[in-house]
Each structure stands twice: as C-alpha cells, then as structure tokens.
Design goal:
mainly beta; about 0% helix; about 120 residues; about 60% strand; four-stranded antiparallel beta sheet; 11 strands
C-alpha cells in the first residue's frame, strides 16, 4: 500500500557531507510528519530530525547545526542534508512518515528499509 524508499547513503570521511533522500509512494492522501531516525551498532534507534506538516522542524542535539531536514510535498519526498559528519554519525538511517492513506481515516506510521551511512576517521 505505502512504501518508503531511502537513497543516498554511503561511505564518507569525517568532515564530509551526504544527502539522504526518501520517497513515499502509494495512495497517500496526507502526510502529517516525516522524519529521519538512525540506529548505530549496539544502540537503540533514535530520532535524528523531524519535519511536521506545518514546516516546523526538530533535531537531535547531537546533529543540531550540522543536519538539515527538508521536504518536497509535491513529490512526497523528504531529505536529510548531513554536513560536518562525524564517526559517531555512523549507522543505518531510516525514513519515517506518519500519513493517511486515501482521503479519510487515520494517520499511521510507516518506515523505510534503511540506508547505511558510514563515516570514517
């Protein structure tokens, strides 16, 4: 019904930049929120950045000032621009969306498959 697909992950040196993309597809009527989470080896999944339908954003303290979340509503896409990357940013990054399928009903949570980000040095 709904699919979230991430892209843009890869290997980058510390201090470098990476841009993640996520596209939501399906019978999407409305998107309330989109976000990026990450999970490092041995750690729990954590919220990295969140963008709400009104455009407001929230960031984890560890990435504030370095990462920027943005969206393209017409394309049902969300992006994460990651700058000044650190080794501790390494992990699997997951796209998340709270959206409504069809034109009425309830908002549900959906997750992408994840994309690996590895920061060396």
């Amino acid at each position: 019904q709904v699919q979230l697909v991430e892209s843009g992950g890869g290997l980058v040196q510390a201090g470098g930049s990476l841009r993640l993309s996520c596209t939501a597809s399906g019978s999407i009527f409305s998107i309330r929120a989109m976000a990026w989470h990450r999970q490092a080896p041995g750690n729990q999944r954590e919220l990295v950045a969140l963008i709400i339908s009104d455009g407001s954003t929230n960031y984890a303290d560890s990435v504030k000032g370095r990462f920027t979340i943005s969206r393209d509503n017409a394309k049902n896409m969300v992006f994460l621009e990651m700058n000044s990357l650190k080794p501790e940013d390494t992990g699997v990054y997951y796209c998340y969306s709270q959206l409504m399928v069809g034109r009425s009903g309830t908002y549900y949570n959906y997750w992408g498959q994840g994309t690996q980000v590895t920061v060396s040095s």
